[in-house]
Amino acid sequence: MTVPCVGVDRERGEAVRRRLAEADALAGEYDIDVEDGTIYLPVTDRDAVPESLRESVVDRDPEPRETPTTPADLLGYDPSIERLGDVVIVDEADADRAAEIAEAVMNSDVPCATVVNRASPIEGELRIRRWDVLTGDGTETVHREYGHEFLLDIAEVYFSPRLATERHRVVEQVEPDEHAFDMFAGVGPYAVPMADAGAGVVACDLNERAIEYLRENARRNGVDDRITAIHGDVREVGDDWAGWADRIVMNLPHSADEFLETAVAIAGDDCVIHYYDIQHEDDPFGPGRTAIERAAGDAYDATVETERVVRSYAPHELNVCLDVRLTSR
Fold first, then answer.
1. What is the H or E stretch that residue 190 is in?
2. What is the pLDDT of residues 85-97, one digit of tens each?
3. Which of 51-60, 88-97, 136-145, 272-281 has the highest mean pLDDT?
4. Cα separation of 12 and 10, whole Å?
């Protein structure tokens, strides 16, 4: 049977697959095929493909995919689950229902070593949460993202796989040999790929275990010679890097505004800040823009290059990013 497929270079395959998945355009009932360095991703309809990819659509005859057994097949309903490496995360208040889902996950074809249930919201300045381990031995796992792998323990560090596309967007802007400063680095999902893109990276985090994982992840991905990992409050170490950065990542959306004075001190003569914020949908970008301009003061011209909604955070609240270029006066 002839099926429309997006054909792109194999190296772009994962990034394009994610874009198609976000557009709900992937035809999951067919196998993805690779031929002569080109990967062909079956899609539901040409019109569902993002416009920038439509010229890459060709007709192919892919093999039907054998449908794996899912937790929904075993339960009779579609549970709310999320995968992080080989850990499956459940979010259920009812303990019996959570145990039922865990059993179905382990009996399905979902790759899984541990099933956990959220036992608390994100808490404290280290932004971690408590977990109930429903089945399996622990909460440490390896997450793979755009060709990099990250060892982490979800009970000891904050990590969101949902931000993979946003992280990749930022990393694609990195130039070789630039200086990049990640102010809230976690286990390195920005720092490691930025270093792999050729940047010299300084990565800071208040969570000592996150910095330990970051150093291990830098080694795993072969970029430990390009990353300086620092445990501590970036406001206390920023003076050591005054005027150094060409690029700054500020992914602490609830309180990044409290660190803007430090970011401006770290910024070089021409520096892009990726500033993450959470604001009401009525004015998602205004407060961040105002805060950055106030912090830049008379020392820099602040030019907003991109205003982007990353995701919905809560009813009427949006997680957003502003890419702002600071140019010294």
1. none
2. 999 999 999 999 9
3. 272-281
4. 5
Contact present, 319 and 310 (Cβ < 8 Å): yes
Task: Identify whether the C-beta of residue 44 lies closer than 8 Å to the C-beta of residue 26.
Answer: yes
H or E element in which residue 60 lies: strand 57-60
Say which amino acid occupies 56.
S
Q: Given 3.30.300.110, 3.40.50.360, 3.90.930.12, 3.90.1680.10, which CATH number is that of 71-138?
A: 3.30.300.110
| 64-89: pLDDT as tens digits | 887 778 899 889 899 999 999 999 99
Q: Coil, strand, or helix at residue 303?
A: strand
Using alpha carbons, list the distances in angstroms from residue 164 to 97, 141, 148, 193.
29, 17, 11, 11
Its pTM stands at 0.79
Number of helices (H) and strands (E), helices first, in the chain? 9, 17
**Could you identify the residue written with the tokens 């910095």?**
211
